[in-house]
Amino acid sequence: MKKSTLFVLIISSFLLLFGCQNIGKDHSEQEETENEVVDESINFLVLGIDSRGEANSRTDTIMLVNYRPEDRTLKLISIMRDSYVQIPGHKYNFDKINNAYFLGGEELLKKTIQNNFGLDVDHTVTVDFQGFVSVMDTLIPEGINVHVDQAVIDDMDLKMAAGENSLHGEDLLKYVRFRHDERSDFGRVERQQEILLDVIAKVNEKMNSFTGMTKIPQLVHDTIKNVETDLGPQEIITLSSMVFSQPIEQIETMRIPVKDGFTNQTYGHAGAVLKLDFLKNQEAMQKFLSEPTPVNDEP
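-> structure tokens emitted (299 positions)
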């Protein structure tokens, strides 16, 4: 599979990891797969693409997902798209990180992350806006309850009153994309992580019910078709077996840049950017990935 954001890979993986790993396999096949499971952590690069059919697109969402089988922890790192980083081969040397995908796709973005943060990416998963809507409507047809401010309603032309509302595919996309308030992209990253955790909780709850289990094959089919990833079938089976044998018990989140880890700057070729204190952000990321205590990254 190749290219098709943020939430779809993780949610699709949760369907695979928590539900379908035993479907269609006999006991001997399960034992063979379990023998292939490794104990090392795995890094996924999850991308949300602002695509409307053009050849080159920018990443609207960039998230690193680290699965640690040794302590059964899933760690999610949102990298803000205006982070000013060094992009290999770029004529200006530095630019917004979301421009790396526009210039060189997944491979250049992976190199950019490795060069700037010292973190290798094992696999990538990409989803565009329509894929997000389709997956949300497939997985959570009942919607997700969130508090919606009037600013979001006015800016995104939502047909609802301010307060608690049940949002579905199209409206959920608008909610997680909104950034035209005083918190700008910082608020958007918070909303993305908020919805992601809610969706994971709902999917996990469904997978633990008998009715939910019976729907797994169709849910997997309807979800995966909206996701593009470099994971092969055997790798998905192996990863599924790993998480089945070592279930995720804790999910932690952080944001790059961290608090006091950037300054607001403007450059002619890039516009308004977040100029990173690389040492502070690299140290915070390494601490977050190596220790169970979440990093305080409030702006």
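The radius of gyration is 19 Å.
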